[in-house]
Amino acid sequence: MLKWLEWAKEIQAISQAGLAYTKDVYDKERFEQLRALSISIMQEYSEAGEDKIRTLFASETGYQTPKVDVRAVIFQDGKLLLVREKADGAWALPGGWADIGLSPSEVAVKEVQEEAGYDVRAVRLLAVLDKKFHRHPPSPFHVYKMFIQCEITGGAAGIGTETSAVGFFERDALPPLSEERNTAEQLDRLFRYNNHPDLPVWMD
């Protein structure tokens, strides 16, 4: 991980926890200064503007915890379902940030319907990964990624507000991947579960 990004994330986490628990007005000012410093670091070394950084990176309250990204894994005739993301034109497993009030399985089902058009049911958890251990582009968040295998029960292929195409792909014929969302190594590992359903959950 880039050192400046690691430092900015740590400073942001300290400031957020401090603002959540301090009762001293002077300590609050110091923690606000730390938060401002983390924003300045992100602004200096990234292309995002201050408003976007403040909204996405430094607007949460309470104790800092990792964000959770839920991805649905769906096989059909040995091929894996992927959707093309409008954000970068590359392909990913259907999924997104976990929603308050929904279980991981419910998030997976919802994301598939919204992004790919299919009705599915969640079958089993395949992996829980820490994004920092994988070859994703740098991110301002500490992210846990959950991969949940699902089975199609109805519906039909269709695009959503965030996707522009839907397709099933063989292991050796994958399209350009949205590496922010999933890596080639991760998909390769997921294909193994289709052939070896007795494999244990992949962690970290």
TrEMBL record:
This is ADP-ribose pyrophosphatase. Belongs to the Nudix hydrolase family. Pfam families: NUDIX (PF00293), Nudix_N (PF12535). Residues 65-193 form the Nudix hydrolase domain. It comes from the Bacteria.
